[in-house]
Amino acid sequence: MAHVYRVILTPAKCGYVVTVPDLDINTQGKDLAEAIYMARDAIGLWGICEQDDGRIIPSPSAAEPPHEEGELISWIDIDFDKYRRANDMTTMRINVSVPKYLKALGDEAGINYSQTLQEALKARLQRGEAKWFGGAKYIKTTLMPDQSEEDIAETCWELRRAGYLKTLDADDTVT
Questions:
Q1: 70/38 Cα distance (integer angstroms)
Q2: Does 15 reside within a domain?
């Protein structure tokens, strides 16, 4: 079930500070797009941690939060169940059987069985036709040489926020 929380965006030297009054949490972003993305991520992470600890997540308030002149008010939607599914990287131990000769060959080749299985499962279970695009620098040099790296990164953030891209690596590689 989706909830919509009001946030206060306060301009700062390096972007925006985001306050979520209903949850008493803060985050920040280098620009509005990143601040809103980070707010959704902070709300989602905070919410699933509360659930994991057996606490009730407060319902969003209907009233506009008090704020100073120059601060912006926005709304952030979040579905805690979807957020959990998309971000739960908890590992589970499973037992897998392979033919003896494959085990021997894999051991000789130094195969990381866990990583290999994860890669195979991701490739097989991936929904839709995802395409690897790389980071902003790669996209600029190979796909959009006329655009600035900053514009490409901002566009990727917006597309990620809208659910059209998935960030796979810490270096913002997207598919």
A1: 20
A2: yes
Q: What is the secondary structure of 53-92 as a DSSP string? A: TTPPPPPPPSSPPP--TT-EEEEEEEEHHHHHHHH-----
Please tell me what DSSP assigns to residue 145.
T
For residue 87 the two structure tokens come to: 């971000």
pLDDT tens-digit map of 106-162:
999 999 988 888 888 877 776 544 455 566 666 767 667 777 777 777 777 777 766
Spell out where 2-160 has E strands.
2-12, 15-20, 25-29, 72-79
Q: How far apart are CA 61 and CA 24, in angstroms?
A: 13
- Which amino acid, 4? V
Report yes or no on whether pTM surpasses 0.70: no
Residue 18 CA to residue 32 CA, distance in Å, equals 10
The H or E element containing residue 26 is strand 25-29
- CA 98 from chain center: how many Å? 34
Residues 67 and 136 in one domain: no
In a domain, 103, yes or no: no
DSSP 8-class letter at 18: E
Whole-number Å distance between alpha carbons of 143 and 151: 13
Total domains in the fold of the chain: 2
User: Residue 139 half-sphere exposure, CB side, CA atoms within 13 Å?
Assistant: 21
Angle formed by the axes of helices 80-87 and 32-52, nearest 10°: 90
